Every structure is written in structure tokens, then in C-alpha cells.
């Protein structure tokens, strides 16, 4: 597809600048942003959950797509990152930006209550996966990125990635699409 003009969330550029200023390197790549935004838009009056806020880049994309009556809980255990996300996004009444371990937030969420999970950290992805998926409604999206095997990652991490993809592929409560673009996106829909 040809290059097109991207309409960015209002705060995106400022958050990106603040992210670069603190030298945070684990920021999400741009292409997943509009993808998350479109998925968020498909869940009108939705309840969304982001595990791993970082500085709020993808949070801003989720909010960009969400309807006025949707809500988003996002969690990160880094005070420095959360401070940036809160500074730029906390005035939006739809978002609750939580400084905590992801598993503590997962524990507080009722089963079958979430329409979309973007799992961008360890809990809810490499551990606490069953607990996170239990929160998801039937028909809800479970999205992860960084699923491409990379030569500059350790063999141990690459085999973790492969094990996670194999596990998700074999579950009979999920329909899975492995998308080989950007950092490698895996999109699952809960079916049972
Ligand atoms: C890949 S980054 C998230 C990037 C973010 N989604 C974005 O849009 O740029 C992963 C984040 O997970 C956070 N983190 C690491 N362990 C965590 C845990 N146990 N609970 C919550 N957050 C955690 C890190 O502080 C880091 O900000």
C-alpha cells in the first residue's frame, strides 16, 4: 500500500517527545497504533484493558478509536512511565491509568467483562495468561506484538515467543490470526 497521511491522536507527538527525552526504548512501533484504534472503534461502549502502558503511546491510539462511552484501564509498574502517560492522558475521563503490577489489575477484573486486551508486558502474556484471558468476553480481542523471532534477541526469549504462539494456536477457546507485519502481531478472538 502507498504511504498515506496518518491522523495521529491529539497527544501522540507530545508523548513521543517525552518518551524520547527520558530515553525509554521499549516503546511500541507506530503501525500497531492505528490497528488498535480501529479494533477499539469496533467495540462501542467497550471495556478495554492495556497491560504495559509504557508512556502512553498505544493508550493514546486506543482512546483515539474508542467511543465516548467506552472505558480503558491501562497499567504499568514504572512510575516514570506512568507519570508521562498521566500527564498527557489523565484528563480523558474514559481512562484509568494505574501504577501497579499488571497481575494485580488482572486479579481485580471480573471474568468475561473485557472487550479488548492489548497485552504489551510480561503478565497477561508470558505469565498470568489464563487469568488475563478469563477476563475477556466471548468475541473479545486479545492482541500481542513483538512476536517476530529476532536475531538480536536471546535464544531463550525467541523460544518463549515460539512457545507462546504454539500455545495460543492450540487453544480451542481462541481463533488466532498471526500477522507478519510490524513487530509481528498476533490477534486472537475468544470463541468459548
Ligand atoms: C513494551 S513496553 C509497553 C509499551 C507501550 N505499550 C507503548 O505504547 O509504548 C512494556 C512496559 O511494561 C512495563 N512492565 C514490566 N513489567 C511489568 C509488570 N509486571 N506489570 C506492569 N507493567 C510492567 C514496563 O515498565 C514497560 O513500560
From TrEMBL:
Superkingdom of origin organism: Bacteria
Keywords: Methyltransferase, S-adenosyl-L-methionine, Transferase
BP GO annotations: methylation
A molecular function (GO) term: O-methyltransferase activity
Gene3D superfamilies (alphabetical): Vaccinia Virus protein VP39
Protein name: Methyltransferase domain-containing protein
Amino acid at each position: 500500500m502507498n504511504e498515506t497521511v496518518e491522523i495521529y491522536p491529539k497527544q501522540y507527538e507530545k508523548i513521543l517527545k517525552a518518551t524520547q527525552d527520558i530515553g525509554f526504548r521499549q516503546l511500541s512501533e507506530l503501525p500497531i497504533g492505528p490497528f488498535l484504534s480501529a479494533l477499539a472503534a469496533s467495540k462501542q461502549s467497550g471495556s478495554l484493558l492495556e497491560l504495559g502502558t509504557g508512556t502512553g503511546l498505544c493508550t493514546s491510539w486506543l482512546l483515539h478509536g474508542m467511543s465516548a462511552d467506552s472505558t480503558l484501564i491501562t497499567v504499568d509498574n514504572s512510575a516514570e512511565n506512568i507519570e508521562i502517560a498521566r500527564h498527557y492522558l489523565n484528563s480523558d475521563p474514559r481512562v484509568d491509568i494505574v501504577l501497579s503490577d499488571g497481575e494485580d489489575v488482572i486479579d481485580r477484573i471480573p471474568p468475561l467483562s473485557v472487550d479488548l486486551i492489548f497485552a504489551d508486558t510480561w503478565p497477561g502474556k508470558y505469565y498470568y495468561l489464563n487469568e488475563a484471558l478469563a477476563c475477556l468476553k466471548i468475541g473479545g480481542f486479545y492482541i500481542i506484538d513483538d512476536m517476530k523471532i529476532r536475531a538480536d534477541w536471546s535464544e531463550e526469549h525467541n523460544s518463549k515467543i515460539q512457545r507462546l504462539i504454539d500455545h495460543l494456536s492450540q487453544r480451542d477457546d481462541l481463533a488466532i490470526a498471526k500477522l507478519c507485519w510490524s513487530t509481528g502481531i498476533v490477534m486472537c478472538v475468544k470463541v468459548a
